[in-house]
C-alpha cells in the first residue's frame, strides 16, 4: 500500500497557520477558516484510510492462453468493507486509462477485453485501487493480493492460400497435392474402438462384414515435416510472420492426416495427428520460439515425406537441411516473396516455393528450380 499526503498535509499546514495567526494578531475571523481546514483535512484522512482498510481487489482471467489479436476477457472485482470508499479509480495494466469507481458503492465490477498483438509470455502486474476523498486531499492505494499473473500469447493460425486463388487450396508439386499428408500403409489389423473412420479398411468390411483398421507405418519419417528456422532475421515482423506460417502449415497438414514439427533448437520433431493431439504443446512452444535459433539438421536427413522449410529471412540459396533430405517434395517458405520467382502458395504474410531437384550451390543465388 502507498499513501498520498501532499494535499492533506498542505491543508493541515494552512489551517494551523491561520489559527496561529488569528491568535498572534488577535483576528478572530481567521479562526473559522483555519478550523474548517483542519477539520476537513482530518475528516478526509479518517474517511479515506478507514474505507481503504476494508477494500479487496480480485482479478479473474478467462484463460491463461490466448491467440494473437483475440480478446481475453478480464474481470476485476472491487469490494469494500464496512465503510464504502468516497471516490476512487482502478489502475490496471490492461486499461489504457484508469477506470473511475462509483462513490459509495460497496461492490464494483470492471470488465476488460484485452488483446495482444504479438506472441510470447506476458506478465500482468497486479491491479490496484486508489481510494481518495472527493477533493483529492488524501489518497491511498490498495493492491490486489497475490503475485503478478502471466498470460501466454499464442501465434494465430491463418489459412494456406494457393497463389492467385481466393480461398484455401492445396499446393501441387509433381502432380500431387503437396500439402496432403504422405503416409505408407503397413498392414491390416482388427478394428480398435476409437480409430478414426478414415483408417477403417472399408473394402474388407464390404466383403466380409468385419471391421479392420489400416495400419500406417509407425515411423514418423513418412509424415510431412514443417521445419522452423529463426536464424539471421533482422526484422521483428519477419520473425513473427515465420512463426505464424509454421503454425498455420502445421495445423493445415495435421488435419489432412498428421504431420511433424521441428522447432528451433529441438533435436526431435513433435508429432501432431489428425485429431490435433500434440498440437496444444507445440503451439505453446511456438509462442516461445526465440530469434537466432535454427533446427537440428540431423533430424531431417532420413525423412521420406514432404519437407517444408520455414525461414525467418529471404534466403539466397537452399538451406543445408533441404539439400540433404531424400524426400519426394520440398517447399521453402520465406517472409514476403522472392524476386523473380513464382510462389506456389501464401500463408501469414509468407510465400511458399516448390523446389525441384535440390543441390547445394557452390556460389551465386538459389539454384534449386522453383516452380
Q: What helical percentage do the residues reach?
A: 10-25%
Number of domains: 4
What is the 3D form? elongated
Distance between the termini: 65 Å
Global structural class = alpha+beta
Please outline the major beta sheet.
8 strands, mixed
Strand arrangement across the biggest beta sheet: 12-22-23-21-20-17-18-19
Hey, roughly how much beta strand do the residues contain?
Answer: 25-35%
Low-confidence stretches: 1-5, 172-178, 180-184, 357-371
Number of helices: 6
What are the secondary-structure elements, in order, as H or E? EHHEEEEEEEEEEEEEEHEEHEEHEHEEE
Count of extended strands: 23
| Integer-rounded radius of gyration | 32 Å
User: Can you give the mean pLDDT?
Assistant: 78
Element layout with pairings:
Layout: E1 2-4, H1 6-24, H2 31-52, E2 56-61, E3 65-67, E4 72-79, E5 87-91, E6 99-100, E7 107-114, E8 120-124, E9 128-132, E10 139-143, E11 149-154, E12 161-162, E13 172-173, E14 176-177, E15 185-190, H3 202-208, E16 212-216, E17 225-229, H4 236-254, E18 259-262, E19 270-272, H5 279-287, E20 307-311, H6 320-324, E21 330-335, E22 345-347, E23 350-355
Parallel strand pairs: 3-11, 17-18, 17-20, 20-21
Antiparallel strand pairs: 1-10, 2-4, 4-7, 5-6, 5-9, 8-11, 9-10, 12-22, 13-14, 15-16, 18-19, 21-23, 22-23
Helix pairs in contact: 1-2, 4-5
Amino acid at each position: 500500500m502507498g499513501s498520498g499526503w501532499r494535499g492533506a498535509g498542505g491543508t493541515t499546514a494552512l489551517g494551523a497557520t491561520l489559527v496561529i495567526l488569528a491568535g498572534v494578531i488577535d483576528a478572530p475571523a481567521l479562526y473559522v477558516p483555519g478550523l474548517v481546514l483542519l477539520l476537513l483535512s482530518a475528516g478526509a484522512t479518517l474517511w479515506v484510510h478507514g474505507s481503504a482498510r476494508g477494500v479487496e481487489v480480485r482479478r479473474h482471467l478467462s484463460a491463461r492462453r490466448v491467440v494473437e489479436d483475440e480478446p481475453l476477457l478480464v474481470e476485476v472485482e472491487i469490494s469494500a468493507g464496512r465503510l464504502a470508499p468516497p471516490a476512487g479509480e482502478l489502475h490496471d495494466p490492461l486499461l489504457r486509462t484508469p477506470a473511475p469507481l462509483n462513490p459509495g458503492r460497496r461492490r464494483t465490477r470492471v470488465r476488460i477485453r484485452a488483446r495482444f498483438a504479438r506472441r510470447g509470455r506476458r506478465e500482468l502486474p497486479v491491479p490496484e485501487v486508489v481510494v481518495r476523498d472527493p477533493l483529492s486531499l488524501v489518497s491511498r492505494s490498495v493492491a490486489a493480493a497475490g503475485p503478478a499473473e502471466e498470460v501466454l500469447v499464442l501465434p494465430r493460425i491463418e489459412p494456406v492460400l494457393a497463389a492467385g486463388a481466393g480461398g484455401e487450396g492445396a499446393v501441387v508439386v509433381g502432380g500431387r497435392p503437396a500439402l496432403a499428408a504422405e503416409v505408407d500403409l503397413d498392414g491390416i489389423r482388427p478394428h480398435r474402438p476409437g480409430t478414426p473412420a478414415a483408417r477403417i479398411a472399408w473394402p474388407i468390411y464390404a466383403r466380409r462384414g468385419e471391421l479392420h483398421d489400416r495400419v500406417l507405418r509407425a515411423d514418423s519419417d513418412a509424415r510431412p515435416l514443417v521445419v522452423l528456422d529463426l536464424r539471421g532475421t533482422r526484422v521483428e515482423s519477419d520473425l513473427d510472420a515465420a512463426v505464424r506460417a509454421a503454425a498455420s502449415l502445421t495445423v493445415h497438414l495435421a488435419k489432412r492426416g498428421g504431420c511433424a514439427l521441428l522447432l528451433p533448437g529441438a533435436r526431435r520433431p513433435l508429432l501432431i495427428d489428425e485429431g490435433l493431439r500434440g498440437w496444444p504443446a507445440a503451439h505453446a512452444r511456438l509462442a516461445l520460439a526465440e530469434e537466432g535459433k535454427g533446427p537440428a539438421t540431423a533430424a531431417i536427413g532420413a525423412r521420406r515425406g514432404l519437407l517444408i522449410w520455414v525461414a525467418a529471412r529471404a534466403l539466397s540459396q537452399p538451406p543445408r537441411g533441404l539439400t540433404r533430405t531424400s524426400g519426394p517434395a520440398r517447399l521453402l517458405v520465406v517472409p514476403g516473396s522472392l524476386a523473380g520467382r513464382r510462389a506456389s502458395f501464401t500463408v501469414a504474410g509468407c510465400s511458399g516455393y516448390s523446389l525441384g531437384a535440390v543441390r547445394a550451390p557452390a556460389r551465386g543465388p538459389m539454384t534449386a528450380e522453383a516452380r
